[in-house]
Design brief:
The chain is α+β, with helices and mostly antiparallel strands and 120 residues long. Helices cover 17% and strands 42% of the residues. A 6-stranded antiparallel barrel has the order 2-3-4-7-6-5. The mean pLDDT is 86.
């Protein structure tokens, strides 16, 4: 399978995410981000969401008082194979995000990556 990503993905473990389908009032769910890149993210959800669905997303960065808000588009969804955590994994492409907030996300992911790479 050919890699189609243009940007490096950084694994994360402490970034929370809350999401809802655009134009819906109710929160659809919350999760922890699995990874981040310059253009997207991946996280687990409990209910299937179709590709092309637009999401309002709020990232909760540790030790940051202000969340990062953005709009993203679901580009893929697959059922998870983990028995302890059934559901779906989705890939989301950032659709509408402030440049400063994009930098905040990437700075956090990069700093976390640096910490983990020093432990080898």
């Amino acid at each position: 399978m050919t890699e189609r990503r243009r940007f490096l993905r950084f694994m994360t473990k402490d970034v929370g995410v809350e999401y809802r389908i655009c134009h819906e009032k109710e929160l659809n769910g919350s999760s922890c981000v699995k990874d981040l890149s310059r253009e997207g993210t991946r996280f687990a959800i409990s209910k299937k969401i179709e590709s092309g669905t637009l999401l309002d997303i709020k990232f909760l960065l540790p030790k940051e008082p202000k969340p990062v808000y953005l709009m993203g588009e679901v580009v893929w969804a697959s059922e998870t194979e983990e028995e302890k955590d059934p559901g779906y994994m989705i890939g989301v492409k950032f659709f509408k995000i402030d440049n400063f907030d994009r930098l905040r996300l990437l700075d956090h992911a990069y700093a976390e990556w640096l910490k983990s790479s020093k432990s080898y």
